[in-house]
Amino acid sequence: MPSVEERVAWLEGRVSEHASAIGKLRSDVRELRAEMIHRFEQIDRRFEHVDNRFNLVIGLQFTTLLAVFGVVLAAYLR
What we know:
Blueprint: H1 4-77
């Protein structure tokens, strides 16, 4: 049976292994978060582009509706 000092030394070694593993896991999570933030920024830029196009299409539809309404109103008032 190992002595108390040997068992404590073994436990200290295991704890230091676990601490280094946890440190590596933390750094991996930080890298993953940074990558996710970068990806979400790319997606936000794409949505801004889609929003601009959507506003253009809605503006064209509204302008067309006003033109048609104006023509119908002009024809009705004659």
